[in-house]
Design a protein that fits this description.
Keywords: Glycosyltransferase, Starch biosynthesis, Transferase. By secondary structure, the chain is of the alpha/beta class. The protein has three helices and five strands; from the N terminus they run βββαβαβα. The strands form two sheets. Strands 4-3-5 form a three-stranded parallel β-sheet, with helices on both faces. A two-stranded antiparallel sheet has the order 1-2. Helix 1 links the parallel strand 3 and strand 4. Helix 2 packs across helix 3.
């Protein structure tokens, strides 16, 4: 498959608030954004953070940015399975979430269609939301930056 051009487009319809909106997604021309949080509406939402992470990433994608959202997979998701992994310690649990979020764009092979051409690489902006993801900037500075990543 040939390299993707900088401005390939496709139409995408998504729900914004109470209305369905059709936007053109311009892939490859914007920033690589990784949103990290513990809630993503409509799947896991207890307050405003779930609303933001349910609406802002699709809106940013519609404006030409490549977007990934990283969140825990809770058991209320459709087709979720029990992994038998129980982590009672919130510090460890959210530390693992932060580490997974930092590694996801580097290692996931996102070749699901012609518009997504593999891992994000190193030019990524992480948007850490709430205290659960507060270790992301710390890990970036102390682990990744010294390695030149």
């Amino acid at each position: 498959m040939a390299k993707l051009t900088a401005r390939q487009t496709r139409s995408k319809t998504f729900k914004s608030g109470n209305a369905w909106t059709s936007r053109t997604i311009v892939c490859g021309s914007g920033m690589n954004l990784i949103f990290v949080g513990t809630e993503v509406g409509p799947w896991s939402k207890t307050g405003g953070l779930g609303d933001v992470l349910g609406g802002l990433p699709p809106a940013m994608a519609a404006n030409g940015h490549r977007v990934m959202t990283v969140s825990p997979r809770y058991d209320q998701y459709k087709d979720a399975w029990d992994t038998d992994v129980v982590i009672e310690d919130n510090q460890l649990r959210f530390s693992l979430l932060c580490q997974a979020a930092l590694e996801a764009p580097r290692v996931l092979a996102l070749n699901s269609n012609e518009y997504f051409s593999g891992p994000y690489g190193e030019e990524v902006i992480f948007i850490a939301n709430d205290w659960h993801t507060a270790l992301i900037p710390c890990y970036l500075k102390t682990i990744y930056k010294p390695k030149g990543i």
